[in-house]
Design a protein that fits this description.
Layout: E1 6-9, E2 22-26, H1 29-32, H2 40-47, H3 62-76, E3 80-84, H4 87-90, H5 99-114, E4 118-122, H6 130-134, H7 143-153, H8 155-158, E5 164-169, H9 171-182, H10 198-218, E6 223-230, E7 233-235, H11 240-256, E8 263-268, E9 272-275, E10 278-280, H12 299-311, E11 316-321, H13 328-347, E12 352-358, E13 376-378, E14 385-387, H14 389-400, E15 404-407
Parallel strand pairs: 2-3, 2-12, 3-4, 4-5, 5-6, 6-8, 7-9, 8-11, 11-12
Antiparallel strand pairs: 1-15, 9-10, 13-14
Helix pairs in contact: 7-10, 9-10, 9-11, 12-13, 13-14
Keywords: Glycosidase, Hydrolase
Family: Belongs to the glycosyl hydrolase 1 family.
InterPro entries: GH, Glyco_hydro_1
Length: about 400
Amino acid sequence: MHQKGIVTPMTTARTPFPDGFLWGASTAAHQIEGNNVNSDWWRKEHDGTGRIAEPSLDAADSYHRWREDMDLLAELGFTDYRFSVEWARIEPVEGRFSRAEIAHYRRMVEGAVERGLRPIVTLHHFTVPQWFEDLGGWTSERAPELFARYVEACAPVIADSVPYVCTINEPNMIAVMAGQAKRGDTSFPPAGLPTPDDETTDAVIAVHHRATAVVRAINPEINVGWTVANQVYQALPGAEDVTAAYRWPREDVFLEAAKGDDWIGVQSYTRTKIGADGPVPAPDEAERTLTDWEFYPRAVGHAIRHTASVVGDVPIVVTENGVATSDDERRSAYLAGAVDELAACLEEGIDLRGYLYWSALDNYEWGSFRPTFGLIGIDWETFERTPRASAHWLGNLGRTRELPRTAA
């Protein structure tokens, strides 16, 4: 049995987070907007091929309620909001761009700025237009050209007042799912972490570099990069070489590809222990989250340190870190442990620029609404938003920059 953590301030408060440190939360369009009908995921949710338990349908209806969501984040004390623009909305038909959708996302950027939130925009967060998937997706010969054209179309959205742009979210997971599909496994989520598809790995790296050049041409002041899913591979005694070999195609090759970027996004939730024969499950007595991951608040510190060891002097932003739980006291305890790790990394001299919790809202977690990551809870009947105690705690930390701890 675990003893619930209660978040309390330190006896002597200190403020390790520098001025300008990004402090906010993240979301993704398909997971919160609702009715993303022209996307590949919408098709998977309804054609039966993806074995997906629940369709996204209205999701959190944030397409219409984004103002309310931003109001809450600003009122809570956050300074930054990461959200994605949806390619399938902007280019629902190949070569045909929706001026209305481009204007919609520009209004979101302006709305964030009006509320004192820095908008951090992700150009691709897992979903693509159905027509792009039908052409062969990322491994199509035309993929770099088509994605670059889409990025150019996003110029009115990102050209002004957007300090950070992410080209592609978790490209390593895109390659993992492509490898899974090539082996004929249509289950979601994939069991374990299958070997990524090499062709897709090469393709998304090439697309990222092309898109980075386009973003810099739109506005050279934009900090452009991408985000990587960090699994926090921990070698058991004698398994160091196995761990390095396991990590390379699933993580490090994507970190290496970011060495010329303006920043790199760390996305971390738990750890993965590696033995001589590969991943070792967490023990039965380990506390688990609603995604069946080990409750491990220190993961983010390990992910930051490993990323820094690979990318060198590229600044780091934690773009996702969080916990799926129905017990908000455990969320607060997780956050306190994670924040301690952030502070330690800063004190070690790592160039860490910010922390964005996943997720601002309860959302559609790729097949299910059951895993509740949100700082803000959602009533799925009325869409009423209710900030949790953890949201107030984390937002207050953004205001005070005083480092809290967890006490038994």
